[in-house]
Amino acid sequence: MKIDFDKYENGLVPAIIQDVRTKNVLMLGFMNLEAYEKTLALKKVTFFSRSKGRLWTKGEETKNYLHLENIAVDCDNDTLLVQVTPQGPTCHKGTDTCWGETNKVNFGFLSKLEEVIEDRWNTKDTADSYVASLFRSGINKVAQKVGEEAVEVVIEAKDDNDHLFLNESADLLFHYMVLLQAKGFHLRDIEKTLIARHK
């Protein structure tokens, strides 16, 4: 891997720090050649601190290390993407990221949908919605709906109507997410189980 440390006068290149699992950006730092080599040797992210004027291994005081997983260089050879497993919060202010965000797995729209389903769970006794009514009807009804939708997916899978197959698949996934919430679990719990099996 070729990194152009000579591109800028100070010999530093930006290093974008990304959680290898969640893909969230945690912080931005700068590395010179010495910091890069020390990062590789320690397997802990080390920067050149412009304020301290020296090499600085993230977590050397707090023990909130950034354990190195992978480093990639961009198309111009002057910016690094450093994938890490963080040990504790990344920001010196105690937050997960330097933008004050929570470093949690995001499944795009499914995460937004999961938040809506969780809200319906929390307001099931008062909310006037289909999901709240499902929760009020009890776990057996929710599980039954998952079973019904699974059967409908199987039926549509045997035909050639992709539109109906995708709609029934969406119904199954939606009701399964409702069941997960009713049981006190989230998509991240299923992801964790699949990751454990993958190893």
UniProtKB/TrEMBL annotation:
Top EC class of this enzyme: hydrolase
Q: What is its EC number?
A: 3.5.4.19, 3.6.1.31
Q: Name one GO molecular function term.
A: phosphoribosyl-ATP diphosphatase activity
Per the record, what are the reactions this protein catalyses? 1-(5-phospho-beta-D-ribosyl)-5'-AMP + H2O = 1-(5-phospho-beta-D-ribosyl)-5-[(5-phospho-beta-D-ribosylamino)methylideneamino]imidazole-4-carboxamide; 1-(5-phospho-beta-D-ribosyl)-ATP + H2O = 1-(5-phospho-beta-D-ribosyl)-5'-AMP + diphosphate + H(+)
Q: Positions of the region Phosphoribosyl-AMP cyclohydrolase?
A: 1-109
In what pathway does it function? Answer: Amino-acid biosynthesis; L-histidine biosynthesis; L-histidine from 5-phospho-alpha-D-ribose 1-diphosphate: step 3/9; Amino-acid biosynthesis; L-histidine biosynthesis; L-histidine from 5-phospho-alpha-D-ribose 1-diphosphate: step 2/9
Phosphoribosyl-ATP pyrophosphohydrolase: region residues: 110-199
Q: Per UniProt, which keywords does this protein have?
A: Amino-acid biosynthesis, ATP-binding, Cytoplasm, Histidine biosynthesis, Hydrolase, Multifunctional enzyme, Nucleotide-binding
Q: Where is the Phosphoribosyl-AMP cyclohydrolase domain?
A: 27-99
Compartment(s) where it occurs, according to its Swiss-Prot or TrEMBL record: Cytoplasm
Instruction: Please give the family membership noted in the entry.
Output: In the N-terminal section; belongs to the PRA-CH family. In the C-terminal section; belongs to the PRA-PH family.
What is the protein's name according to its record?
A: Histidine biosynthesis bifunctional protein HisIE
Q: Which organism is it from?
A: Dokdonia genika
